[in-house]
């Protein structure tokens, strides 16, 4: 099962004691993962029972901390690379931008470090943050150069 980068706190009930199995079911993960959280990652379990129980407030605290740790925001010009598992600057000669009918822009690129394809859909108004190389999506810099759809100055 793929490692999750973020766990929503929304499904956790206000004041409730979860079994390991219930937590696993809540997030669609293996019970073994929950055991590992308890064993290795500091998820608190309620004392005094052979079976492991976790209180919702401890779940909440644990996942909040976990989410924070996993959060690696993209800086300007970066796109998350699924292989490196961190935001990377794309290779500048392999960026493709496409205006979609709904006003968003699809950016295709290649990770500047490992070469894996990156993919991101950004809103037009976030465009300059997403790709400072092309500060204005309506400007001449992202006019597509032909059949292959590459922005003109990406080819230099
Ligand atoms: Zn990469």
Largest sheet descriptor: 3 strands, antiparallel
What is the rounded distance between the termini?
41 Å
What is the strand tally?
A: 7
Mean of all residue-level pLDDT scores: 76
What's the domain count? 2
Largest sheet, spatial ordering of strands: 5-6-7
In helices, the fraction of residues equals: 10-25%
Shape: elongated
Q: How do the helices and strands follow one another from N- to C-terminus?
A: EHHEHEEEEEH
Notes on the structure:
By secondary structure, the protein is of the alpha+beta class. It is built from 4 helices and 7 strands; from the N terminus they run βααβαβββββα. It folds into 2 domains: 17-70; 79-143, no CATH class. The strands form 3 sheets. A 3-stranded antiparallel sheet has the order 5-6-7, with no helix packed on it. α1 packs across α2 (31-40). The model is unreliable at 135-156 (pLDDT under 50). The structure holds zinc ion. Zinc ion is lined by residues 81, 83-84, 88, 111, 113-114, 116.
């Amino acid at each position: 099962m793929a490692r999750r980068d973020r766990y929503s706190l929304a499904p956790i009930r206000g004041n409730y004691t979860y079994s390991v199995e219930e937590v696993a079911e809540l997030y669609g993960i293996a019970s073994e993962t929950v055991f590992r959280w308890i064993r290795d990652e500091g998820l608190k379990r309620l004392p005094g029972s052979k079976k492991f129980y976790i209180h919702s407030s401890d779940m909440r605290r644990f996942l909040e901390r976990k989410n924070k740790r996993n959060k690696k925001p993209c800086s300007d010009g970066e796109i998350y690379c699924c292989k490196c598992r961190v935001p990377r600057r794309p290779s500048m000669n392999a960026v493709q931008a496409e205006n979609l009918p709904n006003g968003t822009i699809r950016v295709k690129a290649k990770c500047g470090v490992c070469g894996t394809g990156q993919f991101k859909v950004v809103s037009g108004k976030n465009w300059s943050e997403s790709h400072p190389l092309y500060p204005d999506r309506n400007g001449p810099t992202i006019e597509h150069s032909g059949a292959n759809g590459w922005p003109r100055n990406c080819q230099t």
